[in-house]
Design brief:
Two copies of one chain form a homodimer. By secondary structure, chain A is an alpha/beta fold. Chain A has three domains: 44 residues, no CATH class; 132 residues, Response regulator (Rossmann fold), CATH 3.40.50; 142 residues, Response regulator (Rossmann fold, 3-Layer(aba) Sandwich). Chain A is built from twelve helices and twelve strands. Chain A binds a DNA duplex (16 and 16 nucleotides) through helix 2 and helix 4. Chains A, B: This is LacI family transcriptional regulator.
Chain lengths: 341, 341
DNA sequence: TTGTATGCGTTATCAT
DNA sequence: ATGATAACGCATACAA
């Protein structure tokens, strides 16, 4: 048995599909009475409008493409949730894809979204990505793209980023105030904006305090494992007395390495992370870290997209929105004897 | 400038759209040479097939609807990720909706998926939901529905559930072996299958050990806050010496309540949770809990849906797949003096 | 206020 | 191997 269409409704009411279409759309140029008859009939027949046909005809879609490295990462799943909070009430739905941090999959996903004729795209790039052609191409095909968190200026359109610079600056300054001075920075690829910005914040704070950091920055130490390895090495060499890790996972590895060397956190060594992963407040010692507001970011990204779709933003306009972050001071950086004001 | 269509390609090649369509579809009844010419031209013109038109014409869609209570819950985001792992390679994409644990939103989301003519639906019900008409209606409209985790038998089609009964049984038995006997059970609504099953496992273990539990089961104590409240009350009344909580969040609240009463976990009171939330291994004491395999569940759900779409399962067939769970024994239930074999 | 006619981009059927 | 034609379900310009 086929699904009921406006044609079925029209027939059973002795009117034409056009009238049914108008009635259902709430068009004013249809009499009150027929509108009611149509609505009742539609309900009675269990009519569900065919959005696919409607989209094709209208030449526009109600679905927004969302592309993230991984759905199941705390930060991203919260951004997605926040985006939905804005987009659903606005009549949009989300077609969600993952890149799994791979450029190739990112491009494939982008193609899928384009083929599905999404009304717009909200995305965060894979770590790996250095070629942003596909995303730019999307904008050239009139599909607005909003980037968040991991963004690139080569792609036109709004960018929503965390205040990575300030977060890192606050973190490192906090360590310095705590009396730490040989502060290592474990981070990911500096080709990625979030890490380069955090690195910039780190440098700024170190320079401001006239501290040396020439040999203390380490790319490729961003997972729990790589963080552990690098930290173990540094602690053994007695080269550092604190760590500013560009992510919380590396911080966990770092703390473990410090403990494995028989030293204490924060008494002997301070550790500050970035992201405030769910476990950050639970581990021992509780991790001082920079909190990112995923909800705020998601809301802003969604609203930015709605503005672009609504034509309220020049397409070529290069707009970057910075979401404030907070330093959450916990145990891993607080020496009891030091006054952290 | 409009997007290029097969008509554009046809024109620029001096052939008809039909041939282009066939060539692009890899149809064998088109000459090798024209196929190549078409493919090259398509690439050159930056052609992206219009899936919307294609879906309308073919009468079928490549998108699967996914409906979960909350995207940003660890368990669900991992199930989603696992579903994608199976569905993407099979040529499907995910349209994702959240119910936010509200029946009304669940029904709205279901409507949205139906209107979008998804090829199938994978869903887990909101806690609140007691009326499953809408989901059943979907199946009646020939949209196959696969339920996972929070399922209901009124909805035809495959159901993938965790082995909640066994998990609960193992958890409680483990507490009993550890020497605990007055074991309270904090849980959610017993109208939800996951909680009723865990309750059944709890009862079975208690009865087996001839332990009394008449006044020890408490619905509506499933969040950190409600768990804390109920546990505080019970501990103060000296009525229990252990807790089996139907969720990890309640366990955290429970542990906090026990500590606030000046007692120790596990020395004075044992606590076992359910779900193995990411923080479970990080908190102090580390939480003994039942691990759910979200990936396994997602894979099974996706495969089940593919089978139904492929017609490999009778529509009316009532099939339930049970995913095994594991008890992760950690500190919160291990009295040093007791041998837990 | 309602009907008529047309097209969105694609694919399937039939013919050549 | 290719072309001509129609149809998927809906929305709109135009006519009445």
């Amino acid at each position: 048995m086929k699904r009921t269409t406006i044609i079925d409704i029209a027939r059973s009411l002795g009117i034409t599909p056009s009238t049914v279409s108008r009635a259902l759309a709430g068009n004013l140029r249809v009499s009150e009475s027929t509108r009611k008859r149509v609505q009742e009939k539609a309900l009675e027949m269990g009519y569900q409008p065919n959005i696919v046909a409607s989209s094709l005809r209208r030449g526009k879609s109600d679905t927004i493409g969302m592309l993230v490295p991984r759905i199941n990462r705390h930060f991203f799943s919260h951004v997605i949730s926040a985006v939905e909070e804005i987009l659903n009430p606005a009549g949009y739905n989300l077609l969600i894809c993952q890149s799994h941090e791979k450029s190739e999959l990112e491009n494939q996903a982008l193609q899928v979204l384009l083929k599905n004729r999404v009304a717009g795209i909200i995305m965060s790039h894979a770590m790996e990505t250095v070629d942003f052609e596909m995303a730019r191409k999307a904008t050239e095909e009139r599909v607005p793209v909003v980037q968040f968190d991991r963004v690139n200026k080569e792609v036109p359109g709004p960018r929503i980023v965390n205040d990575n610079f300030s977060g890192a600056y606050m973190a490192v300054k906090h360590l310095i105030r705590g009396g730490y001075s040989r502060i290592a920075h474990l981070t990911g690829s500096l080709g990625v904006n979030v890490y380069s910005e955090r690195h910039r914040g780190y440098r700024y704070a170190m320079e401001e305090a006239s501290l040396d950091f020439d040999e203390l920055v380490f790319e490729g130490a961003i997972t729990r494992e790589t963080g552990y390895e690098k930290a173990l090495q540094l602690v053994k060499q007695h080269r550092v007395d604190a760590f500013f890790c560009a992510g919380d996972f590396a911080s966990v590895g770092t703390i473990q390495a410090i403990h494995d060397c028989g030293l204490r956190v924060p008494e002997d060594m301070g550790v500050v992370g970035f992201a405030n992963e769910p476990f950050a407040g639970f581990i021992t010692p509780q991790l001082t870290t920079v909190e990112q507001n995923a909800y705020d970011m998601g809301h802003r990204a969604a609203n930015a997209l709605i503005r672009v779709i609504g034509g309220q933003i020049m397409t070529g306009m290069d707009q970057e929105e910075v979401v404030p972050v907070r330093l959450l001071v916990r145990e891993s950086s607080m020496r009891a004897t030091v006054n952290n004001k």
